[in-house]
Amino acid sequence: MKFLNKIIDELLVQNTDLSVFNIVLPGKRPIVFIRQILEENNYSGFLPNFFTIEELIDRIADKLPIQGISLWLFSFDVYQSMNFIPRESFADFLKWFPTLQKDWDDILKFSDSDEAVLQYMFDEERIKEWAQDLGDDEDVPRRKFLNFWKNMTVFLPALKKKLQEKNWATSGMIHEEAKSKIEAFAKNNTEQFVFCGFNAFTPVEEKLVRNLLQWDKGQCFFQADRYYFDDERQEAGKFLRNHITWKEFNDSRAFQWIEDDFNQPKNIKVYEVSGNVAQTKILPEIFKEITNKTFSNTAVVLLDENLLPASLDVMYGVDNLNITMGFPLKNLSFSNAVKQLFYLQKQLEKNKSSYYYRDIFPILEELPKSAEDGEIISQFKAKIEERNIVYISRKLLHELLSELSYFNLLQKADSVSAYLDEFIAFCRQVKWLEIDDIQYENVSHFENAFRIIKNQLTPYDFEIKMETLEILINQHINSESIDFQGEPLRGLQIMGLLETRLLNFENVIMLSVNEGKLPLGNSQNTYIPFDIRRFFDLHTFLENDSIYAYHFYRLIQDSKNVHLLFNALSSGVNTGEKSRFITQIEMESSHPIEHLIIENSSEPITTQPIEITKTAVVLEKLEKWKEKVSASHLTSYLYNPIDFYLSKILNTSETDEIEEELSIKNYGNLVHYSLQEVYEVLKGKILKESDLNNSIKAIDQYINIAIEKLKHQPEFYEKGMNYIHKAIAKKVIESILTYDLELVKSGNALEIIDIERRFENVDFYLADKDKISFFGFIDRIDRFNGTLRIIDYKTAKIKNLSVKIDEDNVEEYFLNSDRKQALQLCIYQYVVQSLPEFWGLPVETGIWSFAEARKGVISLQFDKGTIDDAMQSVKNLILQILDPDLTFIENIKSYIN
């Protein structure tokens, strides 16, 4: 830590007792390093006092700071008392006041008079309107904006007065109060102040420093480098070049220090990486280049705090590391669950009869849970998924989840106060569970926030709605972070850019060095236009860019190895553009820069198809499978042998998922089950016109029975695409019944023999003693004009029902998945011919497609060969499945657009 060492050496020369000094720093992070330096110098006296400059300003102003929720509530109370038209709710007030308050603090810090700026804003807008016909409509946007600033010229001065009466002050008011007391403080104070490593000051901070210098009660140590200090074009030196012109720096008090470190030899590498998280994957390779494997002089600087978890994942090989940055509360699971809970409350206000499953599931997954709660949630999800319940009734939710420890949080709240009490009790309860430290901190933050909100709401009598409470919580979530504690003097340092102030590292690795991250650019959230900010010397994005430029160049000026990574992938708000600071050092510095392009390949980990060897265990399972073989097993094998292995041999199945829109599979089941109910009533009868007419009239009734069999709720089909699917299903069923009706009307004899006919133990010999047994279900068996028809229902269109088998293709004919419909019909024909009750009857097999219902049954045709030839090909397929020398190999489908 070269700069801190120089300061300590200088102070020890001045006085061996450092307790006479008050060291003022930009942040608290360097204090631990100063203590280490003093220990290395064998310093044995009292330590100096340490302040941040904000703490020193607060001490001078002697006001109670107020911010956040307490400030918003107090401000709204004042705003409401002024009876502005139109009157706003607290929720509407919170949409604009936090931004305005930051602007107001800027005005108080940087301008001579906040009222002058507010009046200028109002006058400026009024001047613009001189030549405009505003009309009498208050809803005209420009008129509304003009009225807004007119109200602010009254409201903000009144708010300041009310705060002063309480001896409270915002950040800007503290600066304003301190400004009037600085001269007296500098004159009357007997202490010595040392300002270390500052770059940009607010006017009040500058006044404080200069007054202390004038009274010889202060010293200033700057860390500047000639590379950016001497070059007028370099924005990094903008503020320092202004400071050196202070009259307080002269022959007797030099400006300290301007160094020449940036131009010393450096190894700079720029990495162009495809992807944000992909940047972290480069870290292990960079670490290999660092000779000091304790990484005691290495810093990883994350310009995007969201990369912290991914960065930690790749640092498992680092023994010691210290995280000196906060992780945003909003990115943690408990925070997401809290947001979901408030969203759920808003939804319950709109719909009091049911819960949308997507509003419930994330909450149950992300909230910490006990073992008992976990079991309740598991059973609840299983039942909802099994029954495909998209909208869960209040009654059902109570039935399935009433034993859940936090069930009350899922109920519509009686009041905001009661809901806060429930939350506080829940947080207190969660902290007794076995949860990790980060989640414990997350829950503790929220418990504290809920208590603060409840206590702050007590003095006020205005109504707080659930929507308003949600805004308050979200503001809290978005502004809070979890701070990590570690060993700051050992190992790798992980930090944000602002945490690097005053510190120097030999190896610097910086991630997300993108435009928009470094610098932030014109992303300032403000109501004050750029030109007015410039007119009143308020900071704009240009000054902010200069501050970021200084932090960047100062960090790397003393480094020997610099690794700059940026995300080159354009996605969302990220443009994939590298920071202009990288371009500057590429064009302006004398350092050779190595460029590396890291592509994040989207290729799968392996391009080889899955292959399963038929081990002894697999062969044993195949022997068991031979006892119960269905036609669908064989078609599954033709489609993909691995699917066959997983589902038919291992008996695994895909997890159920809730369908918001009826799937193709369940659409087929809906029609299938409905037809089953229709013809079950007609089974054993020679159909008459009246039978079919009555069935057509009762279609809705049969569909409702099918819906029950699917375990779907009737309301699932009441709107949207599902309503259309149900209507189409009804049309298909009607078309099939109408087709049968026309056959009967034409004088044909049609008798329903059986529906969903189950068959099993139908032997099929592969060799003399080796056999398999077929089993399955035939959708419909009827007798049409004396011919037995075996009918299979299909959702898909009919394909390849003309069989052409000869001696040249008999072995491999059914090894083609395009012929799986014919394969299934051949097996059904073989089975029916094997059943004694159907011996001697003429048999016809066919498919009735729901996609082409009006065409009726399309029969299997043998253009070449016979059923015996077909079964020879089926046997060959079964032998292939059973062959111990052949592996199950994944069939990778190629999709061509």
From TrEMBL:
<feature type="domain" description="PD-(D/E)XK endonuclease-like">
    <location>
        <begin position="629"/>
        <end position="886"/>
    </location>
</feature>
<dbReference type="Pfam" id="PF12705">
    <property type="entry name" value="PDDEXK_1"/>
</dbReference>
<protein>
    <recommendedName>
        <fullName>PD-(D/E)XK endonuclease-like domain-containing protein</fullName>
    </recommendedName>
</protein>
<dbReference type="InterPro" id="IPR027417">
    <property type="entry name" value="P-loop_NTPase"/>
</dbReference>
<dbReference type="InterPro" id="IPR038726">
    <property type="entry name" value="PDDEXK_AddAB-type"/>
</dbReference>
<dbReference type="InterPro" id="IPR011604">
    <property type="entry name" value="PDDEXK-like_dom_sf"/>
</dbReference>
<dbReference type="InterPro" id="IPR011335">
    <property type="entry name" value="Restrct_endonuc-II-like"/>
</dbReference>
